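Please decode residue identities from the backbone states below.
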């Protein structure tokens, strides 16, 4: 799909990799892990590494 937002409900032509990452994110949030915060933390760490 070009430019369409895929919601949790539309599994008809879902990308398996996307589904896997969604499932993983759900699993992490079920364990009380804030996925977005973790991603931001990683991005900040990579930025620091690049700067040297």
């Amino acid at each position: 799909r070009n430019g369409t937002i895929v919601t949790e409900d539309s599994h008809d032509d879902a990308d398996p990799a996307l589904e896997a990452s969604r499932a993983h994110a759900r699993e992490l949030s079920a364990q009380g892990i804030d996925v977005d915060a973790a991603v931001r933390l990683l991005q900040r760490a990579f930025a620091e590494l690049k700067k040297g």
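Observation: Helices lie at 16-30, 35-51.
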